[in-house]
Amino acid sequence: MAGAALVLSGHRFATVAQRLRPERLYQRFVSHRAALGIEVLPADETRRTVTTLAQRLRAGEVVCLVADRDTSAAGIGVRFCGAPTTFPAGPAQLALRTGAALLPVSLWYNGPRLRVRIHPEILPGREAATRARVAAMTQELADVFTDAVRRHPHDWHVLQPVWPAPAHRT
Questions:
Q1: ∠ Cα 144 82 63 (to 5°)
Q2: pTM of the model
Q3: How far is it, in rounded angstroms, from Cα 148 to Cα 115?
Q4: In 3D, which of 69, 17, 81 has the Cα closest to residue 45?
């Protein structure tokens, strides 16, 4: 939805999406988004996709990434809505690598109107190692999203598990 709002306001951007099957369906999805001004990069071509995203950011272009769920199983541990989970490291890593601003965005409905909030920039700390800086920035993202979900829980939509299943006691 944030991407649609961005396009409607006249801006182009790049994003990442999982490859759909069959390939023909994925290519139609990518072509349709491209016609709207959205460059879709494949999630399964990590090296090429990260390189392209970094190029776009260094050129001052906009990149929109899903940051409230980790689909890679290689994310950063955070506390989200009071429980431990993982969030993707990519948004913070790209911001650190390119100097681009890391701006969380939340959306909700006020009656029939969609509202979009661009939150203040998440700034990296200077004293810690890169991994610690990425972890701190990712936790800040989780904190922003926790507040947004608590304010508008009915407008947060996720279609896969966010928190790990509890361990079974035997």
A1: 30
A2: 0.91
A3: 12
A4: 17
